[in-house]
Write a structure and sequence with these properties.
By secondary structure, the protein is mainly β. The protein is about 0% helix and about 60% strand.
Length: about 110
């Protein structure tokens, strides 16, 4: 399974970005999908998860501002990020779970200027 994340960039505080992550490869059945982020000098943290059935959870720090969604047919997962803050600056990674295996994307950088 290969993951390709995109959509990062430079945005001013209060702005919006939409991250996308495409999964490809041989036949596979994706269960959960998630977005993580890692800010400079900090550990990687969970941002949001979504099950195959669409049940979503978001970290307290992004609730009300970010929204994870997925398209099972297209094997995509998205992260809509609104009202971005400088503390959201990080490399964002997508992750999928296939059976008991985890696969990670390469990361996409989000920079929020004040």
């Amino acid at each position: 399974v290969q993951l390709q994340a995109s959509g990062g960039g430079l945005v001013q505080a209060g702005g919006s970005l939409r991250l996308s992550c495409a999964a490809s490869g041989s036949k596979f059945y994706v269960n959960d999908r998630a977005w993580y982020r890692q800010a400079p000098g900090k550990e990687r943290e969970l941002v949001a998860t979504i099950t195959r059935g669409g049940n979503a959870r978001h970290a307290d720090s992004v609730k009300g501002r970010f929204a994870i969604s997925r398209d099972n047919f297209k094997n995509m997962v998205y992260l809509q990020m609104n009202n971005l803050k400088p503390e959201d600056t990080a490399v964002y990674y997508c992750k999928v779970v296939v059976g008991s295996d985890e696969y990670w994307g390469q990361g996409t950088l989000v920079t929020v200027s004040s």
